Structure formats: structure tokens, C-alpha cells
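Running this now, will post back.
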Amino acid sequence: MKLIVAVDKNWGIGNNNKLLVSIPSDMKFFRQETSGKVVVMGRKTLESFPNGMPLKNRTNIVLTSDRSYQVKDAVIVHDIPELLEELKKYPDDQIYVIGGGKVYEELLPYCNLAHVTKIDFAFEADTYFPNLDEDEEWEITATSEEQTYFDLEYAFVQYERK
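Update: finished.
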């Protein structure tokens, strides 16, 4: 299983259920990586999308403890064991965890590759991703050239579990 996330310099990922910043090339990379694949997210992440609708051209799996929760065109699961059972239907390399904070935290142990867009700026954040630079189980295996969007500098960094 893989994950894809954009983090600020403090590993912040969101504030008030919104992304910290929207960088067009990061959004394009996200679409390219996940299109036609399986995306796993929490309910609040789904609800942060336009009209709270699942992402097009992907299998959307939503993890929520709310047993009455339903969404058209999404698979709803209620706990990690149920999620792992559902994911057996798909090739491991086709599955992307896309957030939010709690879902990343719960599923990080099951992931072996992380696509992290590292933004060299500290935003106000209330949700964070675990710092992979301080986790000895992970190592950087690829880094893009530094890129700029207006005054923000960022890079696409790939981490792999050792």
C-alpha cells in the first residue's frame, strides 16, 4: 500500500478540514498517481472534496465509525480489520491512502511507499502527518528538483520503508 500527502515544514497537513495550500503541480501529481486506482480516506477527507463527492475515475473507500454513513459511488468500511479485508480485492500497488490525519496514522504501518510533497513553509495547521525524517523505518529514495509556486518552494520526495 502507498500513501500520498503534502506537508509543510512542520509536517502539518491541514487546518479546519482544509488543505494548507493548493499547488497546481501537486494536484496534478496527485491525479496522475491515483487516477484509475483505489483511494482510502476518512469521512472528513471525503467531505472536504467539492460537494463532498468521491473522486472521479478511482475506487473510493471511506473509513468511518458511523455505521449509518452512506455515499453514492464509495465503499464504506467501519474499522481497520474491515478495511484490510476489503483491500484484499485490489492489487497492493494500486492502493493509495489519501488522508486525513487519523487515517494516515492508522494505516502508516501497512504502507511501504510514501509520496510526500514537502513545502518549505510553516502554515497554521491543526492536523499533522508523522515525521518520516525522524522515523528510522523510512528512507528517502527519490527527490525532485526544488520547485516554486509563487513564493512557496517545494519538492516531491519519495520515502520507502527500509
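The chain has a mean pLDDT of 97. More later if anyone needs it.
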